[in-house]
């Protein structure tokens, strides 16, 4: 559905390339995550999909069409097919919720009656029916992002690009927005390409994920494989940042180990280990546990037989 073929991007007046030799396929109906540190090239990557940026070399194909080759009418069609939401929501502060959501329909020349009906359905779907006459300043961050989602869906797109959609939100609101995106993905068969710098977001919602570092894809695979067994140092860095609060400290004379186990028995007790922090859950339908343990240094070796054990 979305294909990157040897895509590189250099911005005029800058030294290096923001993206280098990207090959990537996003399948119809999947939620594809793009994760990386600040400046890695994530925004540039998704902005190529709706032709907000153009590749310096290579091609970006949407449904088999090279988006850089589109004329003005073709671009309008692309923008109807590809919706986008942003970290900072991008709402018009002088327009009500209903008028924000209806704006793409107004720009597309749809009649008032049709607009009103469609806007009412969209606002209801994102759970904002009682807020339709309010202005953005009267809404919480989560509500603003719901307006952004309703507006992005106004023209009935088959692809939704999400640029750090939850970075401005608290953890609980983040989860509810991600749940809404997952529901819309299933109900509408919407293909979602989602940028984030948070592993938690990948864990909650993505089917597959590409890790991007220094403008290249350094690792790509099923979200469970990347989250639980990512190999590249950039991936390991993002995983170790995913814990909450201050990093665990090993008691005197003990070794600190991150142990990740997958599948049946992944939460079985571990003799001789003190659990300092961790999580037990499911990702992509698979059980896992991800624990930070303090053990005797002589026990570290033994942990490797239980799962992936990294001394930290
Ligand atoms: N319009 C532009 N002109 C010049 N350089 C740019 C432009 N947009 C992005 N860049 C550069 O390209 C690189 C990648 O930027 P990009 O915004 O894609 O990264 P990112 O991973 O999305 O980062 P962040 O998470 O901080 O938004 C950076 O070095 C950035 O400075």
Structure description:
- The model has no long low-confidence stretch (mean pLDDT 93).
- The protein has ten helices and 14 strands.
- It is of the alpha/beta class and 312 residues long.
- The protein has helices spanning 42-47, 72-81, 97-107, 112-125, 141-152, 171-188, 199-205, 223-229, 233-240, 300-303; strands at residues 2-9, 19-26, 31-35, 57-62, 65-66, 82-86, 159-163, 191-196, 208-213, 216-222, 255-262, 274-283, 286-295, 308-311.
- Strand 9 and strand 10 form a beta hairpin.
- It has a six-stranded mixed beta sheet with strand order 6-7-8-3-9-10.
- The site of adenosine-5'-triphosphate (ATP) has 12 residues, from helix 1.
- GO terms for molecular function: ATP binding.
- This is D-methionine transport system ATP-binding protein.
- Keywords: Amino-acid transport, ATP-binding, Cell membrane, Membrane, Nucleotide-binding, Translocase, Transport.
């Amino acid at each position: 559905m979305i294909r990157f073929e040897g895509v590189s991007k250099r911005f005029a007046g800058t030294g290096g390339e923001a993206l280098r030799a990207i090959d990537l396929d996003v399948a119809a109906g999947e939620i594809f995550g793009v994760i990386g540190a600040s400046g890695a090239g994530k925004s540039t990557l998704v902005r190529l999909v709706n032709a907000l940026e153009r590749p310096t070399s290579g091609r970006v194909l949407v449904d088999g069409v090279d988006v850089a080759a589109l004329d003005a009418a073709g671009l309008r069609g692309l923008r109807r097919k590809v919706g986008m939401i942003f970290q900072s929501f991008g709402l018009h502060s002088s327009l009500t919720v209903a008028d924000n959501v209806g704006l793409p329909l107004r720009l597309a020349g749809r009649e008032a009656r049709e607009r009103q009906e469609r806007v009412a359905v969209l606002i209801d779907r994102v759970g904002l029916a009682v807020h339709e006459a309010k202005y953005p300043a009267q809404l919480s961050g989560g509500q603003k992002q719901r307006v952004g989602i309703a507006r992005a869906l106004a023209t009935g797109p088959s692809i939704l690009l999400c640029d750090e959609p939850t970075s401005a939100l608290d953890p609980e609101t983040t989860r509810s927005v991600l749940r809404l995106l997952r529901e819309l993905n299933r109900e509408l068969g919407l293909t979602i390409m989602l940028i984030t710098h948070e592993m938690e977001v990948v864990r909650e919602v993505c089917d597959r994920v590409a890790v991007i570092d220094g403008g290249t894809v350094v690792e790509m695979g099923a979200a469970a494989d990347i989250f639980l067994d990512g190999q590249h140092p950039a991936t390991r860095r993002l995983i170790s940042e995913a814990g909450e609060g201050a990093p665990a400290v090993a008691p005197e004379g003990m070794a600190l180990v991150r142990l990740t186990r997958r599948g049946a028995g992944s939460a079985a007790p571990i003799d001789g280990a003190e659990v300092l922090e961790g999580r037990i859950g499911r990702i992509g339908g698979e059980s896992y546990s991800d624990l930070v343990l303090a053990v005797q240094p002589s026990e570290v070796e033994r942990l490797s037989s239980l799962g992936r054990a990294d001394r930290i």
